[in-house]
Amino acid sequence: MAGESHVLCESRVSCESPVLCESRVSCESPVLCESRVSCESHVSCESHMCRNNNYQYVNRLLREQLDEATAANQKLVCELNAVKQEYELKESEWRKEEQVEGLIVIT
After folding, report:
1. Contact (CB, 8 A) for 16 and 52
2. Within 13 Å and on the Cβ side, how many CA atoms surround 47?
């Protein structure tokens, strides 16, 4: 293999997203790639792994936000129901007072 050119596969692909990759695929120690194609293939694979990690991270964040929004929504529904019951009770009392006042005025 004296005449063949080897490319050292040490390049790292930066993430396309502002989120940093938590785990990167690396060459198994600095390994000599047999051809530029295999290095490009490695870079492409690393890029896909990086994007995959970013998507998993964003998905986790979105699920947490969805859980928080769901909990807040449930709390608001409970509060709304309590206010609605209080309103209905006050309205019922108000109608009774009107009926009593109406009877007093008539007699």
Report:
1. no
2. 9
Q: Render each residue's pLDDT in the chain as its tens digit; 107 residues.
A: 444 433 333 334 444 444 444 444 444 444 444 444 455 677 788 889 999 999 999 999 999 999 999 999 999 999 999 999 999 999 999 999 988 887 765 55
* Burial classification of residue 86, based on how many CB atoms lie within 10 Å of its CB (0-12 exposed, 13-18 middle, 19 or more buried): exposed
Residues whose CB falls within 8 Å of the CB of residue 57, separated by 6 or more in sequence, listed in order: 19, 22
Q: Which residues lie across from 33 on neighbouring strands? A: 7
Helix (H) or strand (E) holding 76: helix 36-106
Beta bridge partners of 32: 8
